[in-house]
Amino acid sequence: MARKKKPGDGPPVITLKSVARHLGLTPGTVSCVLNDAPSARAIPAQTKSRIFAAAKKLNYQPNYFARSLRKKRTYTVGVIAEEIGDSYGSLVISGIEEYLRKKEYFFLTVAHRHDQEMLKRYASLLMQRGVEGLVTVDTILQESPPLPTVAVPGHKELKGVTNIALDHQRAAFLALSHLAGLSHKRIAFMKGHPLSTDSADRWDAICDVAQQIGIETDPELTVQIDRDEATPQVGYPFAQQLLARKKPFTALFAYNDISAIGAIRAFQEKGLRVPQDISVIGFDDIPGAAFHFPSLTTVRQPLVRMGQVAAQILLERIEGKRDYPAQVAIEPELIVRESTGEAAKR
User: Which of 198, 193, 75, 86 is nearest to 132 (CA)?
Assistant: First the structure.
């Protein structure tokens, strides 16, 4: 007599043996195929197809704890970010999560807020918890980690670290050529926070390209962000500083979209129109850039894609499938919207 079902009883758990029984195969054969073991190469393609189809039909869920014990692996990676909720880091982490989820990996995330002592402590804690590799987001590494590591963005050459970085030379050329094409000659610049990973490389690229195309980088029209914030407030007071210097300019190239949006607010409060009086160009192309008023012209870096590439490279390095170069360059794209226009004739 069948056991009477009790309240709260769930559906039967489908195990690897259940799949094998359903197919009339040995558990070892099914295990080889589903775990992509080297011995699976000897199993006919038709049998593999039957196994995958049955696993899907029966809704077989692998026991990752058992798999970890068997293979002496955790299938877990660590993500070390400067901040989790900022517009840059959140999009990169979204791409990392999307790729890892498809590959059935877990990840643990920590945020150090540019505190070097905290960064060392967190890296140590992640390794104690068995992560097999690391992805760093907007984090300046001082030394080579003992695990395979991918840095987004990364600019320092370190052993064992694969850097993913935007082509800042190309990005600066796209932005400055766009402004020059609109007859802007007096351009103000907003430099990034010194602890932001991209700050120095982006500014060096801007100076280099500006010199090549004949645009002056006037120190009086240059401000340095020194606030570590993830809101438009990061750009608002520095745009006010530029206006207070009473030196005319017709365009602003901001460090990122958040600072550009804050700057637009400061300009509008002084009765200046964007772009009729001052054009503004940002960097990143965060989701809100297209919906701000006016919509923001910006240099797009594909942040979600950069996170996906970082996760892919890390897993392939962990699993020994490919050797990657020290750096992977990502191409930027100029997105022209409403915040830039012809230079005001004043």
Answer: 75
**Considering only the top CATH level, what class is 74-166+304-330?**
alpha beta
How many of the other CB atoms lie within 10 Å of CB of 207?
15
Q: For the segment 64-93, what is each residue's pLDDT rounded down to a tens digit?
A: 555 554 556 888 999 999 888 888 999 999
User: Where does the chain have alpha helices with state H?
Assistant: 16-23, 27-34, 45-57, 64-71, 87-102, 116-128, 168-181, 199-213, 236-244, 257-269, 303-318
Q: What is the CATH number of domain 168-301?
A: 3.40.50.2300
191-234 tens-digit pLDDT: 999 988 899 999 999 999 999 999 999 999 999 999 878 789 99
- pTM value is 0.78
74-166+304-330 shares the fold of 16-62 = no
d(Cα 150, Cα 139) in Å, to the nearest integer? 11
d(CA 126, CA 278): 47
Q: What φ, ψ does residue 78 adopt, rounded to 5°?
A: -105, 140
Query: In residues, how long is the chain?
Result: 346
Sheet holding 222-224, edge to edge: 222-224, 187-191, 251-253, 279-284, 297-300, 333-335
Q: Which of 34, 35, 111, 18 is nearest to 73 (CA)?
A: 35
